[in-house]
Amino acid sequence: MSFTTTILQWFQENGRDLPWRQTRDPYAIWLSEIILQQTQVKQGMDYWHRFMRRWPTVDMLAEATEDEVLREWQGLGYYSRARNLHVAAKQIVALGGFPTTIEEIKKLKGVGDYTAAAIGSIAFNLPAAVVDGNVYRVLSRHFGIDTPINTTEGKKTFTSLAQSLLPETNFSLYNQAIMDFGAIQCTPSSPRCMDCPLQESCVAFRENRIGELPVKLKTLKIKERHLTYIYIRCKGETAIHRRGAGDIWQGLWEPWRTDQIPPGAVLLRQNVKHILTHRILYADFYLLEIGEKPALPPDYIWIPETNLSDYAVPRLIEIMLDALP
Predict the structure, then answer these.
(1) Low-confidence ranges of the chain (pLDDT < 70)
(2) Per the omega criterion (within 30 degrees of 0), is the bond before 214 cis?
(3) What does the pLDDT read at residue 234?
């Protein structure tokens, strides 16, 4: 039995029952793919339902404000995904509908090769192979490929191999099958090798190299950064500002950030660690309760404390707000 046939047969018995698989609506499928780019299915499911309830169509999402979209996205992280989602929704509306070719789908903001292949194959059954982390792992282990997956050569090698393994029909089914196989059977750690239908033909299993594959070069340098926040409480109001472009958390709101601790500020939390992809943040949180509003930079606004939940904030700020007395 071929690799492809085995994967499809496994999927019939073990595939995950996910709501976006019950439709061919490209909007619902695209939304799921954007949410799941950096998110586990279990967490992403709630957000997908939330977005589909609030904005059932791409036209409705396009009409939303960026603030509304960011607020619904709050807690998922990687907020550029939400901003790109909003921009792409407007692109789709301007086109008069969802694009139906891989090249046109790739022109949508925030959509790369993998996402375009996933949307194109699942929504329109286009013959485009998906290559995500799960697929890299399955192919690397089964065929014993040690070319680093995060190199140009590696991407070409795996993309070409994945494309060659597509069945003659049912591209949608196969792409979903191999992704599920990587997520359920051939997992990053403790893969289920002993009951794997590909065990006999798997190079990594035969050569005891499961833990070595796939190979990924370490290129990322992690930087540390320290932040100090002052939550000002003044006559039922507090001051916040919206973060600008070119830094983390673009478009999200935060309390007063300063290097100078004002007299009377009370420390609530110290050295709270928050890990991002490229850096590790350490934050101190202070509360300042005063009777007169201090002079702040012009981009800060004063809002009633009771309205804070209307503004999208990073997870780190949520932690601080939870510590408020």
Answers:
(1) 220
(2) yes
(3) 96
Q: Residue 78 is which amino acid?
A: Y
- Structure confidence by residue, pLDDT tens digits, 98-154: 999 999 999 999 999 999 999 999 999 999 999 999 999 999 999 999 999 999 999
**Pairing status of strand 279-289 against strand 223-233:** parallel
Which ranges of 193-301 does DSSP label H, i.e. alpha helix?
Answer: 203-206
**Whole-number Å distance between alpha carbons of 21 and 28:** 9
Choosing from 33, 68, 207, 212, which is the catalytic residue? 33
CB contact set of 248 (below 8 Å; sequence gap of 6+) = 276, 279, 314
The pLDDT, as a whole number, for residue 247 is: 79
Other residues' Cβ atoms within 10 Å of the Cβ of residue 302:
13
Note the pLDDT of residue 220.
67
Q: Tokens standing for 194? A: 């002993």
Tell me, yes or no, if 33 is annotated catalytic.
Answer: yes
Which pairs count as long-range contacts for 13-21, CB under 8 Å and 24+ apart, including other chains? Answer: 14/180, 14/184, 14/185, 15/176, 15/177, 15/180, 16/41, 16/180, 16/183, 16/184, 18/45, 19/45, 19/48, 19/49, 20/48, 21/122, 21/176
For residue 107, give Cα distances in angstroms to 88, 102, 110, 114, 120. Answer: 9, 9, 9, 13, 13
CA-CA distance, 87 to 103, in Å (whole number)? 18
| Residue 158 confidence (pLDDT) | 97
Token pair 């089964």 is found at 142
Q: Which segments of the chain are extended strands (E)?
A: 223-233, 237-242, 253-257, 266-275, 279-289, 300-304
Report the amino acid identity of residue 127.
P
Strands 253-257 and 223-233: antiparallel
Interatomic CA distance for residues 76 and 65, integer angstroms: 18
Count of all residues that appear for the chain in the document: 325
